[in-house]
Amino acid sequence: MNKIVVTTDFSNNSKKGILFAMQLAKQHHYELVFYNVVQIYMPTIWDNVYYGQFEVNELQQSQVALENFIEKIYNENNFRNQNYKCVCQVGMVASNEIIEYAKKIDAKYICVSTVGAGKISKLFGTTASELITFSQIPVLIVPKNYRVKPIENLFFASDFKNVQEEFQNIEAFAKPINAKLDVYHYDYKWFLNANKNKFDRISTKHQSIYARFHSRKLDSGTTLLEHLEKDITKAKPSVVILFTKQNRNWFERLFLSSLATELAFDTKTPMLVFKKHTK
């Protein structure tokens, strides 16, 4: 059974990621691993024996708190008979611990909640931003304004590079939950026959009742972000799928290109971020 590591710090914001993961598990038999990093600082006056016992006690308390926290969310929502467990581990840098644990259990995805809106650091928070940047495992990012609903349609903006690999990754997510995919391709040089032929070739190969393709001509007066926002607003997808080069500067350029510090993005839509392999 595929596993999803669902991160939580017991905050209200983190509940959104938990609810999204529960909805995923409702549509497909994922095992959910609710994961909390316990940060414990050792005063210099403590010896190792005293600290060791203190750490054990803190972990036990956190484990009980996490189990109660998750049980309460299940009881308050319409999710039943799901396979899950709760794990607490001591660590100093949450993102590092999450990535290493997800690798250890061979998790399919990591699910994390955002913390707010505005600057990228405020929108995603330090942990989520670092997961996007460094995790080899795909990351599900759930905004604080998310509302639980069936995951039915996916939005993917493709540059048509590494198409086969990207579609395999998307299908592995979409097919088990029976979600449909809308693929958007944006091109400044749409007038070139070679570009048109490439779009026709790829769309013909992959189009089905579950996947539709849309071509969009970019113009110099409109940013890619503005085109994306327009199409996402119209499509109202359940999830937006991105492939990033996992370079923080690239990520910030994409999302902040037209607004400098404010992120004018649909903050109700979860995102699934894969690492983009370049050849």
Task: State the main characteristics.
279 residues, alpha/beta, 8 helices, single chain, 10-stranded mixed sheet
In terms of topology, how is this protein built?
Blueprint: E1 3-7, H1 12-27, E2 31-38, H2 48-76, E3 84-90, H3 94-104, E4 109-113, H4 120-134, E5 139-142, E6 153-158, H5 163-174, E7 180-187, H6 193-206, E8 211-217, H7 224-235, E9 239-244, H8 248-256, E10 271-275
Parallel strand pairs: 1-2, 1-4, 2-3, 4-5, 6-7, 6-9, 7-8, 9-10
Antiparallel strand pairs: 5-10
Helix pairs in contact: 3-4, 4-8
Task: Tell me what the structure shows.
The chain is an alpha/beta fold. 42% of the residues lie in helices and 22% in strands. The chain contains eight helices and ten strands. It has helices at residues 12-27, 48-76, 94-104, 120-134, 163-174, 193-206, 224-235, 248-256; strands at residues 3-7, 31-38, 84-90, 109-113, 139-142, 153-158, 180-187, 211-217, 239-244, 271-275. It has a ten-stranded mixed beta sheet, sandwiched between helices. Helix 2 links the parallel strand 2 (31-38) and strand 3 (84-90). Helix 3 runs parallel beside helix 4 and helix 4 (120-134) runs antiparallel to helix 8. The two termini are 31 Å apart. 29% of the residues are buried. The model is unreliable at 116-124 and 253-266 (pLDDT under 50).
Put the structure in a nutshell.
The chain has 279 residues and is α/β, with parallel strands linked by helices.
Q: Give me the count of strands.
A: 10
Task: Average the pLDDT over all residues and give the rounded result.
Answer: 82
User: First CA to last CA: what distance?
Assistant: 31 Å
For the largest sheet, list the strands in their spatial order.
3-2-1-4-5-10-9-6-7-8
Taking Cα atoms only, what radius of gyration do you get, to the nearest Å? 20 Å
Ranges where pLDDT stays below 50 over 5 or more residues in a row are 116-124, 253-266
Query: If helices are DSSP runs of H or I spanning 4 or more residues, what is the number of helices?
Result: 8
Given helix and strand content, the structural type is alpha/beta
Shape: elongated
Order of helices and strands: EHEHEHEHEEHEHEHEHE
Helix content: 40-55%
Q: How big a fraction of the residues is strand?
A: 15-25%
Q: What's the story with the biggest beta sheet?
A: 10 strands, mixed
